[in-house]
Amino acid sequence: MEHLIWNIDPIFIDFGFLKIRWYGLMFASAFIFSYSMMQWMYNKEGKNVEDLDRMLWYLAIGIVVGARLGHTLLYDPAYYLSHPLKILAIWEGGLASHGGTLGIFIAMYLYQRGTQDSYLWLLDRLAFPCAMSGALIRIGNFFNSEILGTVTDQPWGIVFARVDDLPRHPVQLYEAIGYAMIFFALLAVYKKTYDKPIQGLIFGLDIALIFLVRFFLEFFKTEQAMYSNSLPFTTGQLLSVPFIVGGIVCVYWSLKNYRAKIAA
User: Of 126, 153, 149, 127, nearest to 138 (Cα)?
Assistant: First the structure.
């Protein structure tokens, strides 16, 4: 059976003194997209767009620091605790979405203290742009031939020639498609609810759906953690469960509060 051979150079442009990688390009595109969506929402709701410049710095630091610490301390703690300076070596690769998500929570909490907006209002506005950002980053992983899927004989399997000659599930693309679908679904929810006294709904749906997709697709991924556990689930699945539960609880709480406000 013929399978697509994926052997794209992960470096997009090489200036000699500077190399721009596809992954870096997708990561930057994710920030630009999220910033543009936030601008659109702030203009739509009559908010001060200039506030977004400060928010962007909080998010950039929170995401990178959180994602790096998540990778080093959750997926390969033995190595990085033995070589703590390697935690700073972001250029060597290694960012974890679970840690990046926690980084966003902390960054937005710190940012919110200097604004008049509520924490959940901000998370609702940031939630669904982050879903599309996740899709762009997974495309970057695809160009890097990383976060590999399990071996498959399905006709859509892809051989990542930079890794081996086995056809694998293009799980990075599965994840990107799933996140993009979540983005468009939550964009529709936002358009129907942005002017209503309901907070936490979009955020809760986003967290629950994204990590539900992540949990399911882990069955088609090779294990990312540098250690094994005795459970039938991967580290990524175990880390996703609290986010799924938290998202469901947030949706329930949000709808309950909204109904109470309407009834009052």
Answer: 149
User: pTM (2 decimals)?
Assistant: 0.90
Tokens linked to 88: 């700073």
DSSP secondary-structure letter at 227?
Answer: S
pLDDT digits (tens, 9 = 90+) for 120-130: 999 999 998 99
Residue spans per domain, the chain: 4-263
Question: Residues near 116 by Cβ (< 8 Å), separated by ≥ 6?
Answer: none
CA dist 215 and 135 (Å) reads: 16
Regarding beta strands 4-6 and 158-160, do their DSSP bridges make them parallel or antiparallel, or are they unpaired?
A: parallel
pLDDT tens digits for range 202-261: 999 999 999 999 999 999 998 876 666 666 788 889 999 999 999 999 999 999 999 998
Separation between Cα atoms, residue 228 and residue 166, nearest integer Å: 23
